[in-house]
Design goal:
By secondary structure, the chain is of the alpha/beta class. It folds into 5 domains: 6-148, no CATH class; 153-269, Immunoglobulin-like, CATH 2.60.40; 319-460, Efflux pump adaptor protein, beta barrel domain (Elongation Factor Tu (Ef-tu), domain 3); 475-727, P-loop containing nucleotide triphosphate hydrolases (Rossmann fold, 3-Layer(aba) Sandwich); 736-946, Rossmann fold (3-Layer(aba) Sandwich). Helix content is 30%, strand content 21%. It has 34 helices and 43 strands. Strands 17, 18, 19, 20, 21, 22, 23 and 24 form an 8-stranded mixed β-sheet that branches. Strands 27-30-26-31-32-25-33 form a 7-stranded parallel β-sheet, sandwiched between helices. A 6-stranded parallel β-sheet has the order 40-39-41-42-36-43. α28 (829-839) links the parallel β39 and β40 (847-849). The two termini are 36 Å apart. Residues 978-999 are annotated as: Disordered.
């Protein structure tokens, strides 16, 4: 393909003679498209892009407020957007403006191919960029393909049964093969045309096609005697398959060769099953409501639980500073992060600036959280009154999308009213699909059960305010925030002298014994101690034993044990129950319903006389030897007046899943210079959930645990037993399941110590490809979909394959498996919902959830559905297409949950673009665990950890597109007498030439 000349593209001509002579192009000015031959140009004129442009559907508008050009199709979204509204507010003008005709901005050109404004001084550079060349390439390829698809020279290629789609073929029928016939007919009586070739085009991965074509017995095309060409599809696995057939013809009279192409496809599976899971409605991105400020809010009535805890210290409001909000309203993530760094963040983070640094990151995160909540706003929603409560049905409430707790606030306004007056409803009741709100008494006069209400969810800022409160304290010792070698008093490994071990299993585990001894023998005021616990190595067991040993040797010790989630805190409590309700107290936030508390933990809680969860008086609270809470809820101790330094030890289990401000809630409000801190977790597994990309960029996603382990004095080998202990005995998984993550993340130090009756229990299972290797990679070519307004992806092909595996496992009478033994992990919420729907009739109790929901858990069988399956190779964006799946920590957690059997269902063409996944797929394939479509790469080749495999595939796709366009161009030029070519040099002469009337 010829190179695009910048001058030609911008002006329509070229001043360089040598260059001009090489141009054989037509330029479509309305579309800004370059076509390299007349045939391609004519095809473009018939194409959808040109027709849409001429019809005004690709028109460019100009926004006089933002002073930018906008494609007409995106005008409404632009006008409704926050950036436009903010710009209008700053100018003091009405944001509702009519679009103007496309304006050429000062000192800029508008590139029609890319739909962007380009400064004049960068125009030449833009025309040479890869992105621009790709846009031009797409146009050329699409035009060439449109041309190739056309019936031509009187030859009509069709399908006798209405298209080249085999439709749905059952797996049992697809294995022996199914046939269809393609009709090739000559419709011109005297034309002499031969079919000289018919073949399947090669795929990017160069693997064998499941489609085969049987050429006709004779090549000649006789008028009205169609040739019937047999197409056969044969495959053994569920999925979606497609290909392209190229028919090559030769016109004897013209001495010309030409090509006609047809797509061919087939779906292997049951049509009824697919239909039951198909998208309910086409995907249309959910439009955000225009959230003008609520200027007139009628306060609601808080629930009684709001005052259940007798706080004596008030929380600060800690509202987002205007300069931070302003910095986050414009530009890219990188630009916003740079602006925050330059204007707000302290240049150096030390003990003096630590609190300010993390407060800024919290505000950045809050800004995004508020923005995300807008997606759940409801318009014209009905309210149902029962007693003093007004009940609102909230879509997605059962899946915590959005999460609503007692005490949260929801604003409502009668639909159609724009007077700025809103009623604040406090959440008093949370049920499965609805919440009960309590408004001001005046709402009863306004309420109309036959009217709809606009609903806005408001962010509960209490957890954020608790973190700001902690960060604002003056307790900021270096030995906790920035420990160095000199903070360790003697730097000598403590002697393991433990006279009595409660959990006898630990005795045979030297790293656990060392961790416990080191923690027990720590001097008051030591730097934090880290229990580095890879998957299944017994972190929580070590924490529990350490707590009990401290209490055994020091009756005056007081311990605060925290975890990021209620479930993790409940686990700590349940394993310390032997202490009894007089020594152990579990604090729950009052917003939690007492009905949600596990029965065996109720004796360790405290309730007010009217039944709300709370805490006992300070004098009673101080008598407990161990208090357990979530990290953020631990602020209650400071709030009710527990003196600083009361707790000698603070334990944080699963510390890698908490942000640093969450950990600091307890440390900076309640610790003193003698308090010892113990962190337990794994920085190689999932970190905290941070919604803001800007906050992640600035460091909020890096946990306190991970930051500690990045410091030289926490290197596991050099500082073993002094500041850190790495647990290495894995009690969960079969060695083959453990091996890959061990070598990739844990230096190959993990030792498989799981019970053989568990980890070997499924060797020989019929679902295994290699009966001695308990991992299966089921390679499937599916299709990822979205539906209605949900941006979450699902893949029906993978859903049904997961269902097939669950059915096979549950029906096996030799290897008996219960629902509770199986876990299904999927990275997208929509996929989890589809899998639950599919399993409802066969295994309703199988746990299906995200990677986050499975961290810390295990199952005998884990099935992972990776979901994403894309064929848009040239537009391929690895970050967006693989998304969560390409996150190394998410990968590590997912593949280390299984005890005896791990099954991955996914598209290897997509997964292999990520070096980590490619290495894992090679590991499975080379150990005989592969089934389904064969890999499209050499699994014995060394994986380059820094390779851009997605870029390689993109370049291969571009090469194929170039090759196809070039072949079509060459066929169009074949037989053309260059002596008859028109000299277009004297363009002005056309002024005097008459126009021909062709009709």
């Amino acid at each position: 393909m010829a190179i695009v000349c910048a001058e030609l593209l911008s002006t329509g001509s070229c001043s360089k003679p040598a260059c001009t002579s090489n141009h054989d192009v037509q330029i479509c000015r309305p579309c800004g498209v370059v076509c390299y031959t007349t045939h391609v140009y004519q095809a473009h004129l018939r194409g959808a892009r040109h027709i849409n442009t001429i019809a005004g559907r690709s028109k460019i508008y100009h926004c006089p407020i933002c002073v930018i050009n906008i494609p007409a199709t995106g005008w409404q979204e632009h006008v409704a957007g926050k950036r436009h509204r903010s710009a209008a507010k700053a100018l003091g003008v009405n944001p509702e403006v009519d679009p103007e005709e496309q304006a050429m901005l000062p000192d800029q050109n508008f590139c029609n191919a890319c739909s962007i404004n380009v400064p004049l001084n960068k125009w030449e550079f833009h025309l040479r960029t890869r992105a621009h060349a790709k846009k031009v390439l797409f146009t050329t390829f699409e035009a060439a393909f449109d041309e190739a698809e056309r019936n031509k020279h009187g030859v009509v290629v069709s399908h006798a049964e209405g298209g080249l789609d085999f439709g749905f073929v059952e797996v049992d029928n697809a294995q022996p093969g199914v046939q269809a016939y393609i009709s090739v007919e000559n419709t011109v009586p005297l034309a002499r045309i031969n079919l000289v070739g018919v073949k399947m085009a090669t795929t990017l991965r160069r693997r064998a096609s499941p489609f085969t074509i049987t050429p006709p017995a004779h090549p000649g095309l006789v008028h009205k005697r169609p040739l019937m060409i047999q197409a056969t599809f044969r495959h053994s696995f569920r999925g979606r398959y497609q290909g392209r057939i190229e028919f090559t013809f030769f016109d004897i009279a013209l001495g010309r060769t030409f090509i006609i192409v047809r797509d061919i496809k087939c779906t292997v599976g049951n049509q009824d099953e697919y239909n039951s899971l198909a998208p309910k409605a086409p995907y249309v991105p959910r439009k955000r409501t225009d959230r003008t400020a609520e200027t007139n809010v009628v306060p609601g009535i808080p629930p009684p639980a709001s005052n259940a805890v007798p706080y004596v210290v008030k929380l600060p409001h800690a509202n987002i500073p205007t300069r931070i909000s302003a910095a986050l309203m414009q530009g890219s993530v990188t630009r916003q992060a740079d602006q925050i760094r330059a204007s707000v963040l302290p240049p150096i983070v030390n003990n003096g600036t630590h609190g300010r640094f993390y407060s800024v990151l919290l505000w950045v995160e809050e800004f995004r959280m508020e923005h995300d909540l807008e997606m759940y706003d409801i318009t014209n929603a009905p309210l149902r009154k029962y007693g003093r409560y007004y009940y609102l049905e909230v879509p997605g409430l059962a899946e915590k999308r959005p999460s609503v707790l007692v005490g949260d606030r929801i604003f409502v306004q009668r639909s159609g009213e724009n007077n700025g007056r809103w009623y604040e409803g406090h959440v008093h009741v949370v049920r499965k699909v609805e919440v009960g709100l309590c408004f001001h008494d005046s709402f009863s006069t306004e309420f109309n059960a036959n009217r709809g209400y606009d609903v806005r969810f408001k962010l509960n800022r209490i957890p954020l305010r608790r973190q700001h409160q902690a960060l604002g304290t003056v307790f900021d010792p270096d030995r906790i925030l920035f420990p160095q070698e000199q903070h360790f008093i003697d730097g000598v490994l403590p002697i393991r002298v433990l006279n009595a071990i409660y959990n006898k299993v630990i005795i045979g585990n030297p790293p656990q014994m060392q961790a416990i001894a080191s923690i027990v023998q720590q001097q008051p005021g030591s730097p934090p101690f880290v229990i580095f616990g890879p998957p299944g190595t017994g972190k929580t067991i070590t924490v529990i034993e350490s707590i009990r040993q401290i209490l055994r040797v020091n009756a005056n010790a007081r311990i605060l044990a925290c975890a990021p989630s209620n479930s993790a805190a409940d686990l700590i409590t349940s394993r310390l129950k032997m202490l009894g309700p007089q020594k152990l107290f579990r604090f729950y936030a009052p917003s939690r319903s007492p009905d949600d508390i596990l029965d065996d933990l109720c004796p360790f809680t405290h309730k007010t006389p009217d039944g709300h969860l709370s805490c006992p008086p300070v004098a009673t609270l101080k008598r407990y030897q161990v208090v357990v809470s979530t990290c953020v809820s631990a602020s209650f101790l400071y709030g009710v007046g527990i003196p600083r330094g009361h707790y000698t030890h603070m334990f944080f289990d699963e510390a890698g899943q908490a942000t640093e401000p969450e950990i600091m809630v307890a440390i900076r409000t309640t610790a003193d210079n003698k308090t010892n801190v113990v962190l337990s977790g794994d920085p190689k597994q999932l970190g905290p959930i941070v919604r803001s990309a800007v906050a992640r960029t600035l460091g909020l996603e890096k946990s306190y645990l991970e930051r500690m382990m990045d410091r030289p004095c926490y290197e596991p080998h050099a500082w073993h037993g002094i500041s850190v202990v790495k647990l290495i005995q894995n009690f969960r998984s079969h060695p083959a399941i453990l091996r890959f993550s061990d070598e990739r993340f844990y230096e190959g130090e993990l030792q498989a110590r799981g019970s053989s009756s568990v980890i070997n229990s499924l060797l020989g299972s019929p679902v295994l490809v290699n009966k001695k290797f308990p991992i299966v990679m089921h390679a499937i070519s599916g299709k990822d979909d979205r539906e209605a307004s949900s941006p979450s992806f699902f893949n029906i092909d993978e859903v049904l394959q997961v269902k097939s595996y669950v059915q096979a496992l549950r029906s096996d009478r030799r290897f008996r498996i219960t629902d509770a033994d199986i876990g299904v992990i999927a990275p997208y919420h929509a996929q989890c919902l589809k899998i639950r729907t599919a399993l409802r009739s066969v295994a309703d109790s199988v746990k299906v959830g995200s990677v986050e929901e499975f961290q810390g858990q295990e199952r005998r069988v884990i099935i992972i559905s990776t979901v994403r399956s894309s064929r848009e190779y040239v537009e391929y964006d690895l970050r967006h297409t693989l998304g969560f799946v390409a996150n190394p920590r998410r990968f590590n957690v997912a593949v280390t949950r299984a005890q005896a059997l791990l099954i991955i269902v996914g598209d290897p063409d997509v997964l292999s673009l990520d070096p980590l996944w490619r290495s894992f797929l090679n590991y499975v394939h080379n150990n005989g665990g592969w089934t389904g479509n064969e890999p499209g790469w050499d699994t014995d080749a060394q994986v380059d950890e820094h390779a851009a495999y997605d870029q390689e595939l993109r370049e291969l796709a571009i090469s194929d597109m170039n090759d196809f366009a070039r072949r079509m161009e060459q066929l169009a030029l074949d037989g053309v007498d260059s002596a008859n070519a028109v000299d277009e040099g004297d363009n002005d002469a056309n002024v005097d030439r008459p126009w021909r009337e062709v009709e």
